[in-house]
Amino acid sequence: MNDSDQQQPSFSAQRRRVLLGMGAAGVALAGSALSCPAMAASTPAQVTEAPSSDKTQDLHDFHGQHQSGIITPRPAAGMLVSFDVLASDREDLERLFRTLNQRISFLMRGGPVAEVDPKLPPPDSGILGPVVAPDNLTITVSVGESLFDERFGLADAKPKRLMRMAGFPNDALEADCCHGDLSLQFCSNTTDTNIHALRDIVKNLPDLLLVRWKQEGSVPPQAPARAGEPAQSARNFLGFRDGSANPDSNDQGAMSRLVWVKPGSDEPAWAAHGSYQAARIIRNFVERWDRTPLQEQESIIGRIKTTGAPMGGQHESQVPDYPQDPHGKLTKLDAHIRLANPRTAQTEKNLILRRPFNYSNGVNKNGQLDMGLLFICYQADLEQGFIAVQTRLNGEPLEEYLKPVGGGYFFTLPGVTGDQDFIGRTLLNATPPKTSV
Amino acid sequence: MKKSPLAVLLTLGLLHVPLSAFAATSPLELVGPISDYKIYVTEQLDELASHTQQFTDAVKQGDLATARKLYAPTRVYYESIEPIAELFSDLDASIDSRVDDHEKGVKAEDFTGFHRLEYSLFSENSTQGLDALADGLNKDVKDLQTRVAGLTFPPEKVVGGAAALLEEVAATKISGEEDRYSHTDLYDFQGNIDGAKKIVDLFRPQIEKQDKAFVAKVDKNFATVNKILAKYKTADGGFQTYDKVKENDRKALVGPVNTLAEDLSTLRGKLGLN
């Protein structure tokens, strides 16, 4: 999160609150200045007064070469939902994509909800009120390998690297939260906005989509960056800054190289401008982690916990100098960040764009907290990206504190280019409709 | 990052209120179907009472095999008229509560009725110590008969019952949670579906007058569900256990069930009921 536009309003809002607080003290001292308008403004808020936000009208364009929600700055609330597609034929599948297109386009833009005869169930859940605020919402549509099975005649159009996620050695995958025909990634300022969008989609597609699994997560807001200093990454539930080594999402060259499937690549032509989505629900054993000495935590991760700097460094943005540390005296050779990104010319092609959220689900049977990381990353090449990175991480010391339990691989569809286009159109057009038998 | 022009949309008065989408259905038109429905419910309750007698007799005689055989075909009558039965919440709890409704689980004193008997018959394979539970169920069912006989059927409960039955299916039948010890969920599934279909059939002329396409869509989804359920019928007119239902059939049931739940939720409104 280094978008200074985003930092600015919250900074001034915070400043305003501070100023108002001082104002209240000043008025109290003055005693009898009852008619002062500042008095009313500085009355302490009621318990029930809702937190206020000046970002509820922030919105992203649904149309574009790429879908939003990938290089879009990650907001505070994220949710990944995987679905089984219930469509029974090609026609139904097209209706699914067109309806999704219509709902997402409305939800991301916002607007008044339809009103109906009050004798009927309302078409909208109403949880955002009669006028839906876009609230920075993005909904990103991806498809799983299973959508390319015999049902819809899409087999010939399957992206080359799309596969069913196979368990890694440290995984303990739970069937109920793995895979799926289609995934929707919801990102917005609040959990409620994401839930509103999900309920809208569930209500509008009862015969075509069945929720298979869902995981919500959050990103803790950071204090505004100090003038002249880069923004700092949010912390995960291990207490470490997460995403420090992410490629620059404003660098179009890097994104084109690392994230987007390029026209003319060995992928099917329809897939150009799409991306691969790897999602993982990674449980963290936080009690055990919290009982681990600080220096051990830091050597396992390879960063200083307070600052996020690499070992021996001062700032999060510093790049570790592994050639100067060939035997791992400073940063252990099996430290998480060193295995994940060895910073060599050969491993440049393995860089991925991470977009994770912290999740907390409740309590396990043993009384330990069920929480961890909803890991989501995007890459142009699933094998060179996530799979290569995770394979390097296999056996890392951090595994003692992690247990991936769910997730899946999906292909994020190319963007919707305009009103005549709809999500999934290039995929449908790339394959002849299945002849009915 | 852009700002949305919502404020503008609002001031342009885009919020108009269509007052009523439907031509009014005269309350008189509903009298016939509602009294027909009461006849149906009464018949189902008569069946429930006589089957419950046989079922509980078997339990009390210690005839485990017969009791197990009669469990599902008995309660199916209750499932088909649940919207009316549920109007008496005390009886609904004592006749049909599930183990999850009780914090103390199977040990809860007030866990009685069909599912408590199901637990002993199918999980403990025993009829021991069930006499009081069997008598209680019999008494409760007779009580329900009496109370329903004296009940004026509220039209909105009758028409809304179709949707309520589909909610039952969507919430507990699809997951196989209803009859977790006997796995006879398909009986209940069919009972709920038949009960909902009955309501649609009784009000068919009135609904068709409002929305013909709607009735066709509802019929199609009922037919899809019934076709899948029929695949699991056994020679004796019963059903296979729910664990036999193939994964693709479970999924194929979800779409039509959820769509029926959505569609039937508009039925009261379509008939102008509050």
What does this structure look like?
The complex is a heterodimer of chains A (437) and B (274). Chain A has helices at 4-30, 37-41, 90-109, 191-204, 252-258, 286-290, 294-301, 336-340, 383-393, 425-429; strands at 58-59, 77-85, 111-112, 131-132, 138-144, 182-188, 209-218, 275-284, 353-354, 357-363, 369-379, 402-412. By secondary structure, chain A is α+β, with helices and mostly antiparallel strands. Residues 1-39 of chain A have low confidence and may be disordered. Chain B is mainly α and 274 residues long. In chain B, helix 8 runs antiparallel to helix 9 (185-202) and helix 10 crosses helix 11 (212-230). Chain B starts with a strand and ends with a helix. Chain A binds chain B through residues 5-6, 57-61, 84, 86, 88, 109-112, 115-117, 119-121, 130-131, 133-134, 203, 206-208, 210, and chain B through 1-4, 6, 9-10, 14-22, 221, 251-252, 254-256, 258-259, 261-262, 265-266, 268-270, 272-274. Strand 1 (58-59) of chain A pairs antiparallel with strand 1 of chain B, so a sheet runs across the interface.
